[in-house]
Every structure is written in C-alpha cells, then in structure tokens.
C-alpha cells in the first residue's frame, strides 16, 4: 500500500469491463459476511445499478490494485422515494442515489472512502444526494453526517434487508429568487 490512490471514473458503457473487479472488491470488503443471503445478492445490485444509463462509478487504485469504489445513478423523475420522509420536500427534488461505497479492509481509515464519495458527487447536476445506511453501524452513519448528510427517516427496501436510515445531502444551494 503506497497511499497514492488514483481515482478513475466509469459509466454505464464500462460496466462489462469493471463488473468482476467490483465483485472482487466486494468479496474482500465483506469476506466475513459472505454467507449472508443479502450480501450474496450483490451481483444483482451491480447489474441493476450498472444497467441504468446514468450509472456513475469511481474506483480507487493503488499501484494498479483496486482498493474501493463508489457508485450510483440519478433517480428517475417521480422516483424520489425519500420524499415520503419529509414534511416539506424541496422544490427541486432531482436526486442522485448513492448506492454503494466500499473500501477494502487494508485501505480503510485512510481517507479513501471520502475521496471516492466526493469524486462520485463532484459536478453532479442533481440538487440532492440520497443514500441508505444500516443503523446497526452508527459510526458509518455519523461519518455520513460529517459529510453533510442528515437522517430523514427509515426504509426497508427488501424483506431481508435491514431497516436502513435514509440520509439526504444537498449538492447545491438553491438559488434565491
């Protein structure tokens, strides 16, 4: 590990070439939980998110070795499911859904996760970013809080998934009329 992590961007058209790499990083990041049925469905999630034309992915490499990634896609109009958690939704509800952020164990606590996350959101045209966090990991939720997210509710997207904390972050300050 050199500490010189290089970030590379990928899109929907690149999925076939990076899919196995994402699966390999996931297998290392979750090696202690690979027996969990929900964790085993990760290939489905990669294909689901990667199949979106707006799919965006940032992968970090240390001397050519993948160390982590972040990916997501814009929410389709009318698919801003987080709105149900707000009394007054913002006028501009355009949303980028951050689906995954994972760093292999050897590169954790090096700032790599933050770099991947910020690179993924850099220059996004959407007004908001949304993500789900397992509330069983309060340190992770607190980390996202330091990155500008706030918890707005809870959501269990699948019967076998945790009841995740829904977190939202403004990506740009709304214009004042």
UniProtKB/TrEMBL annotation:
This is GNAT family N-acetyltransferase. CDD domains: NAT_SF. Transmembrane segments: none annotated. It comes from Streptomyces cellulosae. Coiled coil: none annotated. It is an enzyme of class 2 (transferase). InterPro entries: Acyl_CoA_acyltransferase (IPR016181), GNAT_dom (IPR000182). Residues 5-172 form the N-acetyltransferase domain. One of its GO terms (molecular function) is acyltransferase activity. Keywords: Acyltransferase, Transferase. It comes from the Bacteria. Its EC number is 2.3.-.-. Pfam families: Acetyltransf_1.
């Amino acid at each position: 590990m050199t500490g010189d992590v290089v970030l590379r961007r990928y899109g929907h058209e690149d999925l076939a070439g990076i899919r196995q790499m994402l699966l390999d990083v996931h297998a290392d990041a979750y090696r202690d939980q690979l027996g969990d049925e929900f964790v085993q469905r990760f290939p489905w999630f990669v294909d689901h998110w990667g199949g979106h034309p707006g799919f965006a992915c940032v992968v970090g490499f240390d001397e050519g070795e993948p160390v982590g990634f972040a990916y997501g896609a814009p929410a389709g109009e009318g698919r801003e499911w987080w709105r149900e958690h707000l009394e007054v939704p913002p006028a501009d509800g355009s949303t980028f859904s951050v689906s995954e952020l994972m760093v292999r164990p050897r590169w954790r606590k090096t700032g790599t996760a933050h770099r991947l996350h910020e690179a993924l959101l850099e220059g996004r045209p959407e007004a908001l970013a949304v993500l789900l966090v397992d509330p069983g990991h309060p340190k992770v939720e607190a980390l996202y809080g330091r990155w500008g997210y706030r918890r707005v509710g809870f959501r269990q997207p699948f019967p076998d998934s945790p009841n995740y904390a829904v977190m939202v972050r403004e990506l740009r300050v709304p214009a004042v009329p």
